[in-house]
Amino acid sequence: MNVEAIMTKEVKCCTSDATLARAAQLMWEKDCGCMPVCDREGRVIGMITDRDICMSAWTKGRALQELRVDGAMARAVVSCRAQDPVTIAETKMQEHQLHRLPVLDENGRLLGIVSLADIVRSASDGHGRHSADTEDVVRTLAAVCRPRAHGTGDWSAKVPTM
Predict the structure, then answer these.
(1) Closest CA to 3 of 116, 142, 97
(2) Strand pairing partners for 68?
(3) Closest Cα partner for 111 from 17, 4, 5, 6?
(4) Given strand 100-104, what is the order of strands in its sheet?
């Protein structure tokens, strides 16, 4: 099975100059926790999550409407292609501990998003029976959920004092 068969095709994106308030509003409206950041030509230049938004506002001690997406987004985009086998997306999610990947065309333009939830749903037929790739799904979920090592030194400069 390829990524195109399970990905979400109607995906909203925001621009890097949008406020974090606007990005949060779009996520609320679309009931999602992650959004691609696109340039004016529709190429993905970053990703932003609801956690990125919260942590940016907290560490800077400023309101969401005062901060821009480009100050909180991840610039290193891990993506896949619509024609990729789902196993490629799973491997990338495992390696980078990501819940979602933007699906891009050959020019870097957004076609959709494939999420861990999409992969889990595709591994079940809806009647409790599981496909042969269930073990891959469990392996991907375990990799994404493993604790990350965080250094404490770099946070101290960013954390506001109370």
Answers:
(1) 116
(2) 19
(3) 4
(4) 80-81, 100-104, 110-115
Print pLDDT tens along the chain (162 aa).
899 999 999 999 999 999 999 999 999 999 999 999 999 999 999 999 999 999 999 999 999 999 999 999 999 999 999 999 999 999 999 999 999 999 999 999 999 999 998 988 887 765 444 454 667 777 776 777 677 765 433 433 444 444
From residue 137, how far is each of 35, 87, 90 by CA, in Å?
23, 9, 8
Token pair of 141 as six digits: 């979920």
User: Residue 81 and residue 113: Cα distance in Å, rounded?
Assistant: 10
Q: What are the φ and ψ backbone dihedral angles of 88, each rounded to 5 degrees?
A: -65, -45
Domains observed in the chain: 3-147 (3.10.580.10)
Q: Helices (H), strands (E): how many in the chain?
A: 6, 5
> Global pTM?
0.78
- Sequence-distant (6+) residues with CB within 8 A of 119 are 6, 86, 89, 90, 93, 137, 140
Cβ proximity of 14 and 48 under 8 Å: yes
